[in-house]
Amino acid sequence: MKRDQSKYKWIVLSIATFAQGCATFVTYGTGPLATFYQQSLYLSQFETGIIVSVINIGPIFSMICLGDLMDRYGERWCIGLGAILLGLNISLAYFAQSFFSLLIILLFTGVWYGTAQPGGSSVILKWFPHKNRGMAMGIRQTGTPLGGAIAAITLPTIFFHYGLNGAILGQGLVAMIGGVLFLIFYRDIKGRANRSKDQMTLKEKLNLIKNDTFLYPIFFIGCSMISVQLIIVAHFMSYLNHGLHKSLSESGMLLSVALVGGMCGRMILSWVSDTLFHGNRIKPLKITIWSTAVVMISLAILPYQSNDLLLLSLSFTFGFLGMGWFSLFIVLLSESAKSEAVATTVSVGLTINQLFIVFAPAAFGFAVDCLKSYTVPFFVLACFILVGPYWLQKAEKQLTVSETRYHDG
């Protein structure tokens, strides 16, 4: 039986990664389709920007409740049905006749995306032992950028062949396929989904999380580093173009290099934590954040005529660190949670992150507009993220040896 479970966990990893990619095909795919929505509904630039933002607001309202359901009943039906409802919901955009109706549909679409991240993290925590959990989490996290990359490539092509409605239905179909396959192939571990009447209520879990001060610096790291990640996506190309006077084609190429670096970082950094650091997530995460600050400051002080190879290396490294951190963060958060509230704890952390996903790019852009420069905002952001490792180190020292924070699957 143990041998069967050992083999099956790799199937679990495959379908969890695939389901994550299918869900992200919808949420990240909203970006490439925003221009086509703009043409179809005659939207302004401001309204077009809101389209991209509103789908990220939905998970704020759902992740904590959905995480509680997964703690109670397991991941299979929550993730599977969540993906199917995600697909059905985005398909309703087929009937959207106004900007307001489209916003309502996208808002509820984002609500169902709230099953993807906390559910996938809970799956990896349960099925993979501590010694290779980091690498498994890193592989699963590649589903997000891969789903987004495939959406960016395929959805415009579908649009030009079948129109906007064809692209919308394509998004819905992909999400539903991911949900159906997850329902077919995934099985909850027996005994892990607790349906007993004496299980903790959501309010009790939230109080448990509130009283666990070790989680606070981890939550802060999530907020500060997700800001870096979103600024890479939203502002790095603009910085290269306006700050370093690179052409749009060069800037786009360097942004692609950064995104590839992020995909590599999500796997390699988590593998490093499993092997070189023997399952310790805190040390490599602190090193990653320190290094990210150094890279940001280096980019901020680059002269206009910088060496192309240097800029290429810095772009890759910025993405490698500034996007690759997430796997270390999510596995540390999962392992640090109380066993009876893993999905709920992850959901709380990601809900807080989601607020910064919505507001951080706008705040950074506002600072650049006011200061007419990227240098000071980059320096301020570097100082902001450095608070995380310092706070985490202090919290770690307060733990006694007996207070292990790791769950063995």
Describe the structure using short key phrases.
Growth Hormone, Chain: A, mainly alpha, MFS, 409 residues, 16 helices, 2 domains
Number of helices: 16
In CATH terms, the superfamily of the largest domain is MFS general substrate transporter like domains
The count of β-strands is 0
What is the level-2 CATH architecture name of the largest domain? Up-down Bundle
Beta percentage is: under 5%
Order of helices and strands: HHHHHHHHHHHHHHHH
- Bin the helical content: over 70%
The N- and C-terminal alpha carbons lie at a distance of 15 Å
Structural class: mainly alpha
Q: How would you explain this protein's 3D organization?
A:
It holds the Pfam family MFS_1. It is found in: Cell membrane. It comes from Bacillus changyiensis. Keywords: Membrane, Transmembrane, Transmembrane helix, Transport. This is MFS transporter. With 409 residues, this protein is mainly α. Helix content is 81%, strand content 0%. It is globular, with a radius of gyration of 21 Å. The chain has two domains: 2-198, MFS general substrate transporter like domains (Growth Hormone, Chain: A, Up-down Bundle); 203-397, Growth Hormone, Chain: A (Up-down Bundle), CATH 1.20.1250.20. It is built from 16 helices and no strands. The two termini are 15 Å apart. Helix 1 (2-27) packs across helix 8 (143-185) and helix 14 runs antiparallel to helix 15.
